[in-house]
Amino acid sequence: MRKVVVTGLGIVTPLGIGVRRTWKRLLDGQCGILSIKERGPQFAALPSQVAGIVPEGKKEDGAWNAKELLNPGDERRMARFAQYAMVASEEALNDAGWTPKKEDDLEMTGVYIGSGIGSLDDVYDTTISYEKGGYRKVSPLFVPRLLINLAAGHVSMRFGFKGPNHAATTACTTGAHSIGDAARLIQFGDADVMIAGGAESCIHPLAIAGFSRARSLATNWNNKPAESSRPFDKDRAGFVIGEGAGVVVLEELEHAKKRGARIYARLAGYGLSSDAYHMTAPREDGHGPYLAMKNALRHAGIKPGAVDYINAHATSTSLGDAAENRAIKDLLLGEEGKQNASDINLSSTKGAIGHLLGAAGSVEAIFTVLGLHHNTLPPTLNLNNPGDPPEEFNCNYVANSAQEKQIDVALSNSFGFGGTNASLCFSKM
C-alpha cells in the first residue's frame, strides 16, 4: 500500500475562521458556545438554547463574512455548509501549497467532502414557500443547494480537480469516514492528492427540536452556555449542537516529498465498525468503538501501548462518554498496552466548540494532527469532576488546560447514529 500523509489543514469553527486562530483559542481554553434564544421566538421556546456558532464579523478578525471570504455569486449558489467547506478547502490548499495546473496533476487530485444533514434551512424554507405559493416559489437552485455532494462538487469545479469526486453522509462519523476513505483512494492509486473532510450548518429550530425530542441535547445550562458542553464530567447532560467545517489535504508520501511539501503527520491507520445495536444509543460496553480503534491500530501496525493521545468523540452524553471511556481502557490497558489508566491521555475538544455533527470528525482530526505536530494535548473544558464511578473515569482527560506531551501516535474517534464508528490513527514520520 502507498503511504498517505497530511500536508494541508483548513478549518471553520465556533472558535473562528482559520487553523492558527482556532488552535490558539482552543489551547487558551476559550469557548465558542453561545446562547441562541435571542435569535427569535422559535429558538427561545426550545429546551436547548445553546449552540456552537461560527462567529460573524470581519475576515481580519477571524470571523465569517461571506462577502469577503467567497467569490461573487457563491453565497447564492451554495448552501451555508458548502460555503464553509469551500473556505476550509481553500485554506487547506494554500497551506499545502498545492495549486496544480498540469492536466496530469488535476486528474490525480480529488475531493471527498461530506455532511451529516446538509442544508436543512433550504428544505424548511422551500417547504413553507411551496405550501404557500406552489411551484413557482421553488428556486431553481433548491436541489443543487440541497445535495450533500455539492460541497465536494463546488470545490472540484473551483479548482479544476478531475480525480475522485465523492461524499459521505454517515451522521456524526461523516468527517472521519471522508478522511479515511479518501486516504484509501490514494493508497489504491486512484489519486495522488485528496482534499477531504466534512461540513455542517444546521443551527435551525427544527434540527434542535428533533435532537431535543430524542433527548440528546444539553438543557441544564441555558443561562451558562460556555459551561454546557461537559465531556466526561459527572454533570454532563447532553451534547451542544455546533457548525463548521474541517478539511485536510492528503497526499501520497513520495508525491509530497518530491515537491518538498511540509508534512504534518502520516495517516497510518483507519478502522471502521458497527455497534449493530440501536439507532441512537451506544452499547454500554463500547464494543463498536473498541473495534474501530483496534482496526485502526491493526492497519497501522501499531501496538496499543504506543498510543500517546486519543481525541475522543465524547459528546457530553451520559451513555456515550461512558461507553467510549470503557472502550479506550479495554484497548489501551493490558499486556500490549499501558500499565495504569492514568497513563492514558485523552480529551474531548467538544467542550470548546460543541458537536459539529458531520464536520466533527474532520475538525477533531485536525486538532489531533496539530496536537501531534506541536506535542500538545488540547484540553477538555468544563471537566471539574470526572464522571461516576470515579474508579472508571481515572484516565488523564487533560481537564481545562492544555498539556505539553511528546506525541508520536494519536487516534481520533468519531461515532454516529445508526451505530457507525470510525477511528483515524496518525503518527509522526
TrEMBL record:
Biological or metabolic pathway of the protein: Lipid metabolism; fatty acid biosynthesis
Molecular function GO terms recorded: 3-oxoacyl-[acyl-carrier-protein] synthase activity
SMART domains in alphabetical order: PKS_KS
Gene Ontology CC entries for this record: mitochondrion
Domain Ketosynthase family 3 (KS3): 1-428
GO biological processes: fatty acid biosynthetic process
Pfam family for this entry, one: ketoacyl-synt
The keyword Lipid metabolism appears for this protein: yes
Keyword Lipid biosynthesis: yes
Active site: 172 (for beta-ketoacyl synthase activity)
Keyword set, alphabetical order: Acyltransferase, Fatty acid biosynthesis, Fatty acid metabolism, Lipid biosynthesis, Lipid metabolism, Transferase
NCBIfam families: fabF, PRK06333.1, PRK07314.1
Family designation: Belongs to the thiolase-like superfamily. Beta-ketoacyl-ACP synthases family.
Record-linked PANTHER family: 3-OXOACYL-[ACYL-CARRIER-PROTEIN] SYNTHASE, MITOCHONDRIAL (PTHR11712:SF336), POLYKETIDE SYNTHASE-RELATED (PTHR11712)
The name this protein goes by in its record: 3-oxoacyl-[acyl-carrier-protein] synthase
